[in-house]
Amino acid sequence: MRRDPGTGRFAPWLLLAPFLAVFLLFTIYPALSSVWLSTRQTFGPGVSVPVGLSNFTSLAHDPSFWTALRNTTVFALGSVFIQLPLSLLLAMLLNRPDIRGRAFFRVVLFSPVLVGVVFVAMLFSVLFEKRTGLVNRVLNGSVGWDLDFPWLDTYVMPALIVASLWQYVGFNMIYFLAALQNVPKELEEASMMDTNAAWKRFRHVTLPAIIPVGTFVVLLSIIGSFQLFELPYILMNGTGGPEDRGLTLVMYLYQTGFQTGDLGFASAIGWIMALVLIGCAVGQRVLSRRAERA
Amino acid sequence: MKPTPSTASSRPVAAALIGAIALISSALTLTLETPDQAGAKMWTFARLHHEIYAPAIKQWNASGKPPVSCSVLGIQAIEQRMLSSFLSRTTSAELLEVERRIAARAFAGPPEAIGFLDLTDRLKSEGLLDRINGPSFTPWTSRGRIYGLPHDVHPVMLGYRADIIEAAGIDVSTIETWDDFVRVLEPLLMNADGSRRSDRYLLNLWETHMDALEALVLQAGGGVIAESGLPMLDDPINARVLAQVAAWGHGKDPIAADAPYFNASGNQLLLDGFVLASFVPDWMCNLWRNEIPQLSGKVKLMPLPAWEPGGRRTSVWGGTMLGISREAANPDELWEFAKHLYLSPELSRRLFLEGDIISPVREFWNDPVYDQPDPFFMGQARGRLFVGLADDLPPRHNSPFGAMAVERLRAAASELARVADATPEALAPDLLPHASRLLAEAQADVMRHVRRNRFFNAELPRDGAE
After folding, report:
1. Does the N-terminal or the C-terminal CB of chain A have fewer CB atoms within 10 Å?
2. Hey, where are the domains in chain B?
């Protein structure tokens, strides 16, 4: 059968058309539209006036925005530098064949992921209560900790990091566990012949093998951290908490866009956030390429 | 991979199973579809209100007038759906019973974009501005126009552990001012281990108690929003109140502590007698009755101590209104319905008996229902106590920046608490300059947002605003 050259030329586009239509309508159009919106002040979609770049200049002088950015960055750093090393450590422990009940511990550590974020927030709001909360009570009983320690008044970000640690440490552990199980056995055996030092074997054999997964998990963690919303929203009763200590970028975006109706200002926040994340992704790519070359 | 005979034979069964599940779930979805309710829709956030309104709505619908159906939605659901419909100029529900912070969100745009129907002329022409308690209108007023029919008054009193206080031979009727309150009750402060932290405090008040802080500044004659709709955080009265609150909680010889409102931990601390007195608006009596029944027969109410002799003995906390959507097709009928609901003496009685809420309609205040002794409050005529204060309520103006202003007030109070913690011997006058500075910063911050909003501040008087 002879193929019609015209049909052949259009066939790929025809097959791509459903995807392209959805992509253009629901991704490209809203993205471009939000660029336009970020140069306007709005009260919902019906009322808007052009304001040029003043949304961005207002953001630069907005203490709440900087507080939200700082809080979100602290949370992201907590995720990357506390949560991920702990996940890796747990993964290495549960990857050891001599540990009994490995499957049981994997399930136990993974199970908090199955709990809804809203429930986690409510649970930790009770745990972190002053005087009656379990955390202060246990610490008071064991090390004489202050019963009135104000977790949810003054130490909101540490409280959020702990809550998130409880929920996601097992989830990230699964990624690392999968990566560890793919480290070639022959390499590990050969390294054991070279040195008895566990740290050296980890540094020169295990780590290079799991770096691709590691960088992916780091990026995923940063993106997830910058999307932080439900946990502080529920924990702080829909506010940023005392002195905005629990305010995150997405919460601030939500407050401005959906509670005061200024979609323009919210779009500006969204674009700043997108630029930060693009910067992180590019940085991660550059670093991982360097690591691959090395 | 070539399929094994067993997998190949199971394929039609699996396909049939998937098909059957799809068919059954589709059929179920169709049968579960909620039928459209006829007539106008009303949304309320309180199940109790819904129950109280049910007979009145039934009566309205039976009278042959255009029917109304009432649904209960979560506060946040109402907020989102109301704002979405207002911003897109469509109708979600024709009648919206909303709390004051939510209503204020609708006031952020230009007046012509406010989604609620302007009720000012109707209220004036029908004499309702005189029949209903004046301060109850202020939260629903934006740029001089009124957008809601008030549901309540919500005076604030002090609920105290009479079992402990009276057992110590203390007569609270001798308390007139906050200074008296501290002086008279001070002997009850309890500190078993001699540490800085006591085991019993006089007052449930903390820098994080946003509503209580606002109630206190309003009582003192300050506030967060001026009549113009602009913030007034830097008012010297606010600074004085904040300095006193910080000194009570963190200064020399603290008398106030944190028993959080609306949670089990706070309730337990009230039960334990960790704090002896707590702020109680009328609606909170209902909360105490249902959530801390063990307090029954142990607590009494007293007017708030004044900030100076002869000063105001109450404040206000909370507030609800019934608004009509501007896009509603039949506003006149909906207005009649709103009056049928909110101006009914029978409903007002039920609102008090079942919800502990005082009606804002002044002529109902003579109802003997308010004179009934309440065993929960050791036989006090709770209704009469609240009604007696309703006339003296401070005006509480509203603005889309109100929530932000209250939040900034709380932030200033938190920062002042840190200053007080760093200088434990500090008294209120020592903290006053810090309070003034922090509130001036807070004011500047909120004003920056107000100025940025080109829709809201265009028509506002600017003189003396900052």
Report:
1. N
2. 40-150+318-382, 156-316+394-459
Domain ranges of chain A: 54-293
Q: Are strands B201-204 and B256-257 parallel, antiparallel or unpaired?
A: parallel
Min Cα–Cα distance to chain A from B406, Å: 11
> Which residue do the tokens 């007046």 mark?
B111
Structure tokens at A227: 């999307």
> pLDDT tens for residues B394-433?
999 988 889 889 989 999 999 999 999 998 788 999 999 9
Residue type, B61: N
Q: Tell me the two tokens of residue B198.
A: 């006591």
Distance of CA A75 to the CA centre of its chain: 9
Interface test with A, best of B208, B275, B292, B438 (most A CBs within 10 A): B208
Residues of B in CB contact (< 8 Å) with A are: 76, 79-80, 83, 86-89, 105, 108-110, 113, 197, 207-208, 258, 260, 263-265, 268-269, 274, 400, 407, 410-411, 414-415, 445, 448, 452-455
Look over chain B and give the mean of its residue pLDDT values, rounded to a whole number: 91
Q: State the smallest CA–CA distance between residue A260 and chain B in angstroms.
A: 6
Q: Which residues contact B178 (CB under 8 A, 6 or more apart)?
A: B244, B305, B306, B307
Q: CA A262 to CA A250: how far, in whole Å?
A: 14
Which portions of chain B are predicted below pLDDT 70?
1-9, 33-37, 192-197, 457-466
What is the CATH T-level fold of the domain A54-293, as seen in this structure? Answer: MetI-like fold (1.10.3720)
The string of pLDDT tens digits covering residues B257-268 is: 999 999 888 999
Overall CATH class of domain B40-150+318-382:
alpha beta
Report the complex ipTM: 0.74
- A128: distance to nearest CA of chain B, Å? 11
| Fold entry, domain B156-316+394-459 | D-Maltodextrin-Binding Protein; domain 2 (3.40.190)
A89-129: per-residue pLDDT in tens?
A: 999 999 988 888 888 999 999 999 999 999 999 999 999 98
Q: For chains A and B, what is the number of CB pairs under 8 angstroms?
A: 88
Verify whether the Cβ–Cβ distance B108 to A43 is below 8 Å.
yes
pLDDT digit string (tens) for A194-204? 777 888 888 88
Which residues in chain A have their CB less than 8 angstroms from residue B454's CB?
A: 41, 49, 51
Q: Phi and psi (nearest 5°) for A153?
A: -100, -50
Residue position matching structure tokens 């955390």? A135
Across the interface, whether the CB atoms of B455 and A47 are under 8 A apart is answered yes
Q: What angle do CA B165, B171, B174 make, to 5 degrees?
A: 130
- β-pairing verdict for B201-204 and B275-281: parallel
